[in-house]
Specification:
Largest sheet: 6 strands, antiparallel
Radius of gyration: 15 Å
Structural class: alpha+beta
Number of domains: 1
Order of helices and strands: HHHEEEEEEH
Helix content: 25-40%
C-alpha cells in the first residue's frame, strides 16, 4: 500500500470490514463514517471530543492486532452481542459466523451460507474489536451482503 494514499482493501460487506477492525471510509463514504464515528463515541462516553479518522485508525489497529501480529479476539456470551458481530466457536467448525437477529450466518468469500440458530447460552470467541462491538450496540447498523437476508 502506498503511504499517504487510500487503503486498498475490499471486503464482502461492511460487517466483514468491521470484524477485521476497519471503519467506513471518511472520503467516499462520509455519511457512513460520520454515523459510525458517532456510535463509536457514544459507546465511549469518556471521549468527549470528536475523534479524527487518523486517531480512530490508530485505536482500531491496536484493538485488532496483538503485539506479535496475530488477530486480537475476546470472549462473550452470545446473547449479549448485537447484530453485525462476527464470532467463532470450536463446536461450529472453522467458519466465522455473523450474528444477525435470531441466526448465525456462516461467512464465505461469496456470501453467507449455512444458517444456524442463535444459541443464546453459548460462550463465543468474538472476532469484531471491542469498540466496534460497542458502536454496533449503540446503534450502528452495518451494511450486509444480500445473501444474509435471502430466504434460506
Amino acid at each position: 500500500m502506498k503511504p499517504g494514499h487510500y487503503t486498498e482493501l475490499f471486503f464482502l460487506d461492511e460487517a466483514t470490514a468491521l470484524a477485521a477492525g476497519h471503519r467506513p471510509c471518511a472520503e467516499c463514504r462520509r455519511e457512513r463514517f460520520t454515523t459510525f464515528r458517532e456510535a463509536w463515541q457514544s459507546a465511549r462516553p469518556r471521549d468527549t471530543a470528536p475523534v479524527s479518522a487518523v486517531e480512530l485508525d490508530h485505536r482500531l489497529h491496536a484493538e485488532r492486532i496483538t503485539s506479535n501480529g496475530s488477530k486480537r479476539t475476546h470472549s462473550s456470551k452470545l446473547k449479549e452481542l448485537p447484530n453485525g458481530v462476527f464470532v467463532t466457536h470450536p463446536d461450529w467448525g472453522e467458519s466465522a459466523y455473523l450474528v444477525w437477529n435470531d441466526v448465525l450466518l456462516a461467512w464465505t468469500a461469496g456470501g453467507y451460507a449455512e444458517r444456524i440458530a442463535r444459541l443464546r447460552r453459548a460462550e463465543v470467541t468474538v472476532l469484531t474489536p471491542k469498540s466496534i462491538v460497542g458502536a454496533l450496540r449503540d446503534g450502528y447498523i452495518p451494511e450486509i451482503h444480500p445473501t444474509a437476508t435471502a430466504p434460506a
